[in-house]
Design a protein that fits this description.
This protein is an all-alpha fold and 361 residues long. Helix content is 64%, strand content 2%. The longest helix is centred in the last third of the chain and has 29 residues.
Length: 361
């Protein structure tokens, strides 16, 4: 038996593309989707007192985070994600609630934007662990991920804690999971979460299950979802314009002022886009998610790094399926950073970052 080092395609069970130059079309498609999202926000805001600045800021945050992740992942595939995770945890511990400005309604509990950031921090720490070559360093980075999970729990977000634990478990199993299978499973989980939200909004669930979920989600929140759906049905092409949901929503269950941190936005990202930007806005979001899976599938990073980042981004997507965490630029920038790290090509000499030793006969 002799020991060798895994190649750029990953380790045992990997079905990643061979180590070859990255096709430029992947990045070109991603850039085109970002531009299209920004342009459509302006189009849907034209001729009405809309506020597209929030969407433009989110697009800019994703682009900046992705560029930083690609550069940092190429030059320092361990230090950059580790520093990002440490910084996020430190800021959350020192300044709790700085993103969400107070308690949030269930099911995400309190400070849900900070909890979403902890999910991304867990993913970054675990990606750094897979890229590290030192055993003790890998253990320390994974313990950092565990700390981020418990910080989310300390903030009062059981969903954030569960998502962070899910990222940790997926990361530990990533070296034995084929890339395509792992990405398909995570995509299915996202589809189930988004589909469940839409089912609640259209009252498509059995009465008992619907009543139980409505109680946990709070009736006021579900009523906002209903309003978003009605607005989308009335304005299917352009919606009512970015930032205008508060002006047109008519919640019969509770006034919008009773939802202090949720504001007037329908918490799920899909319903928010459907109400404010119509069907094209939702289509662009779905296309962006599909592009992310495609980019991760073709990434030169090893499968454990790719699946770990994908698990963290899936956790964020599932949180955004019930709350408006994507409305915070820090969260969208963190998501872009993690995606950039997972699709970067480390430039240092020697075995690629994230590879692990395996034994051959």
């Amino acid at each position: 038996m002799n020991t060798t080092t895994g190649d750029a395609a990953g380790i045992a069970g990997d079905d990643a593309p061979p180590d070859s130059p990255r096709p430029g079309r992947t990045d070109a498609v991603g850039a085109a989707l970002l531009v299209a999202s920004a342009v459509w926000a302006l189009v849907s805001a034209a001729g009405r007192p809309a506020r597209p600045e929030g969407v433009l800021l989110a697009v800019l945050a994703v682009a900046a985070g992705f560029a930083a992740g690609r550069i940092g992942g190429a030059l320092r595939p361990v230090a950059v994600p580790a520093t990002a995770a440490v910084g996020a945890v430190a800021l959350t511990l020192l300044l709790p609630g700085r993103l969400s400005h107070g308690p949030q309604p269930p099911p995400l509990g309190y400070a849900n934007a900070d909890a979403a950031l902890m999910v991304l921090a867990t993913g970054a720490a675990c990606c750094a662990a897979w890229a590290a070559r030192s055993g003790p360093l890998r253990i320390g980075l994974r313990l950092l991920g565990v700390l981020a999970a418990f910080v989310a729990l300390g903030l009062g977000s059981a969903a954030g804690f569960a998502a962070s634990l899910g990222v940790l478990l997926c990361s530990l199993a990533a070296d034995r999971t084929p890339r395509l299978v792992g990405l398909a499973g995570l995509a299915l989980a996202t589809a189930v979460a988004v589909g469940g939200t839409c089912a609640v909004a259209v009252d498509a669930l059995p009465p008992g299950l619907s009543a139980s979920l409505s109680g946990r989600l709070t009736p006021a929140r579900v009523e906002l979802w209903h309003d978003a759906l009605h607005i989308a049905e009335a304005s299917p092409l352009r919606g009512v314009g970015p930032g205008r949901f508060e002006e047109v929503a008519d919640t019969g269950e509770a006034p919008l002022a009773d939802l202090p941190s949720v504001g007037a936005k329908p918490p799920p990202a899909t319903l928010q886009l459907a109400a404010e930007q119509g069907a094209p806005g939702v289509a662009l979001l779905a296309a962006s998610y599909a592009w992310l899976l495609w980019a991760l599938r073709r990434s030169p990073r090893t499968t454990p790094v790719v699946l770990t980042a994908a698990a963290a981004l899936t956790g964020l997507a599932m949180q955004s399926a019930v709350d408006h965490v994507l409305s915070f630029a820090a969260v969208t920038a963190g998501a872009g950073l993690l995606a950039g790290l997972a699709t970067s090509r480390p430039t240092r000499d020697g075995p690629p970052a994230g590879s692990a030793p395996r034994r051959r006969a």
